[in-house]
Amino acid sequence: MSKLYGVPVSPMARKVLVSLELKGINYEIVPVTPFNKPDDFLNISPLGKIPAWQDQDVTLADSTVICEYLEDRYPDHSLYPPGAADKAKARWIEEYADTIMLPALGSIFFERVAKKMINQPADESKVQDHLEKKLPPIFNYLETLLPDADFLFGADLQLADIALITHFINLAHAGVHVDSTLYPTLAAYVERVFQHPAISHRISEDQKMFGLK
Fold first, then answer.
1. Which domain holds residue 143?
2. What is the CATH number of the domain that holds 27?
3. Contact (CB, 8 A) for 1 and 26
4. Same structural domain for residues 113 and 49?
5. In the prediction, which pLDDT does 83 show?
6. Which of 50, 68, 86, 176 sits between 20 and 30 A of 127, alpha carbons compared?
7. End of a domain among 48, 73, 98?
8. Confidence class of residue 211 from pLDDT cuts 50, 70 and 90?
9. Do 162 and 204 fall within a single domain?
10. Count of domains for the chain
């Protein structure tokens, strides 16, 4: 059985989980958090990154590398659009989500949710600083990038959508939602993607973990 090392509430692990579900790939999840890494985890993930993946003789770390591997090995339900230009755009969006959105949106989730899980108080001053300074430039950019209907590259949910929405899931868990009066296109897109069965399933599973369902 293939193994994914991580936890479902990790946005990077969630990116892989949704990709696995879209492709119908069987897997086992091995719980690993930044606060609870096995002693031999560096043998699996040399940079200490979560998630990591083991598939027979293949061992990988980094969510982007894992998803590219899944796409190559299991081509059914493609995670990328056809065509060089659209594929490059999809990879850029994923990179933007991983490098810009993760620290900004992820910090809010860390303060309000992750710290609570390890019995530490949230630093609300840091949360407010991110809400006021970090999120608006990101939201403004996405407002110009996103389509008015469907997903980023048509009617099928793909990796670029997953890479964006995984951070908005954690932002919602932290009690922050996109203001539809300021960002109508972004708010509608997030709500649309939240309704996709693969995404709504992950949200429901998170809520069970947090004792909300």
1. 84-209
2. 3.40.30.10
3. yes
4. no
5. 94
6. 50
7. 73
8. low
9. yes
10. 2
Phi, psi of 40 (to 5 degrees): -95, 15
pLDDT surpassing 80 at residue 210:
no
Same-domain pairing of 182 and 128? yes
Cβ atoms of 77 and 23 within 8 Å: the answer is yes
In the chain, the percentage of residues whose pLDDT exceeds 90 is: 82
CB 165, CB 157: distance < 8 Å: no
Closest CA to 136 of 99, 98, 182: 182
The whole-angstrom separation of Cα 46 and Cα 96 is 23
Helix ranges (DSSP H) in 74-148: 84-96, 102-109, 115-117, 124-129, 135-145
Q: Which of 32-41, 42-51, 101-110, 163-172 bottoms out in mean pLDDT, i.e. has the lowest?
A: 32-41
Q: To 5 degrees, how large is the angle CA 13–CA 17–CA 23?
A: 145
Digit-coded pLDDT (tens) for 86-105: 999 999 999 999 999 999 99
Whole-model pTM?
0.94
Which of 31, 47, 73 is where one domain is finished? Answer: 73
Give yes or no for a cis peptide into 46 (omega within 30° of 0). no
